[in-house]
């Protein structure tokens, strides 16, 4: 009897099913690096410029207008959201049913979450002085991101995504309590760097 005609044992059959399932999952899963790299760059550069505007003691380290710093930050975050949406779109064609619906609802959650954040920040921001208004916008946006990262990690059982979201939540809370300069620094280094590391870890796991 040829090797191709040999009846597989239950253990070999199970191992073959697992290998085929892993291969299929690898083909269907989009590369996570563009998503995490886009957010990492957005936070590192955007919050880095904001940090130069505020400084740790309230004295600016560079003559960067607040409007320019905020426009850069939220512009880069908008680009990161677009790249994230394109990454999720890769799942649309090969995946049907529950997985597609789950991804679609998760994508809408980002849009609705930032819309709610914008409405809250506009309403209460006008009651605060300039530096505190800026901190309100920045901390609310990062809170939305942190919660959605943790939710995404729980939905798809992606531990690095959940851990990154939890880390963002802690850094955001600590930075908000410490003040605008510290918040911008923690978000630039911690959130930006952490996002890049999470993407590289996920890519390594996909290739394993």
Structure, described:
The chain crosses the membrane at residues 36-56, 68-91, 103-124, 136-157, 184-202. Keywords: Membrane, Transmembrane, Transmembrane helix. With 208 residues, the protein is an all-alpha fold. 81% of the residues lie in helices and 0% in strands. The protein has helices at residues 10-28, 33-54, 66-89, 98-125, 130-156, 159-178, 180-207.
Kindly estimate the percentage of residues that lie in beta strands according to DSSP: under 5%
Largest sheet composition: none
- How far is it from the N-terminal to the C-terminal residue, by CA? 34 Å
* Number of structural units classed as domains: 1
Measured as a percent range, the helix fraction is: over 70%
Structure summary, number of beta strands: 0
Order of helices and strands: HHHHHHH
Provide a short characterization of the protein structure.
The protein has 208 residues and is mainly alpha-helical. Helices cover 81% and strands 0% of the residues. Keywords: Membrane, Transmembrane, Transmembrane helix.
How are the secondary structure elements laid out?
Blueprint: H1 10-28, H2 33-54, H3 66-89, H4 98-125, H5 130-156, H6 159-178, H7 180-207
Helix pairs in contact: 2-3, 2-7, 4-5, 5-6, 6-7
Transmembrane segments: 36-56, 68-91, 103-124, 136-157, 184-202
Keywords: Membrane, Transmembrane, Transmembrane helix
């Amino acid at each position: 009897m040829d090797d191709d005609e040999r009846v597989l044992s239950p253990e070999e059959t199970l191992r073959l099913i697992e290998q085929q399932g892993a291969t299929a999952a690898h083909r269907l899963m989009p590369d996570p690096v563009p998503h995490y790299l886009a957010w990492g760059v957005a936070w590192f550069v955007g919050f880095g410029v904001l940090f130069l505007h505020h400084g740790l003691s309230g004295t600016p380290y560079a003559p960067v207008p607040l409007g320019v710093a905020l426009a850069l930050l939220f512009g880069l975050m908008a680009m990161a959201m677009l790249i994230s949406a394109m990454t999720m779109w890769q799942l649309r064609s090969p995946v049907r049913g529950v997985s597609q619906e789950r991804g679609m609802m998760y994508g809408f959650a980002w849009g609705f979450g930032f819309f709610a954040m914008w409405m809250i920040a506009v309403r209460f921001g006008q009651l605060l002085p300039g530096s505190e208004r800026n901190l309100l916008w920045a901390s609310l946006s990062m809170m939305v991101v942190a919660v959605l990262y943790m939710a995404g990690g729980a939905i798809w059982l992606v531990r690095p995504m959940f851990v990154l979201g939890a880390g963002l939540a802690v850094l955001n809370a600590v930075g908000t309590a410490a003040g605008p300069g510290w918040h911008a620094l923690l978000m630039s280094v911690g959130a930006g760097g952490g996002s890049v590391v999470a993407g590289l870890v996920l890519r390594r796991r996909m290739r394993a």
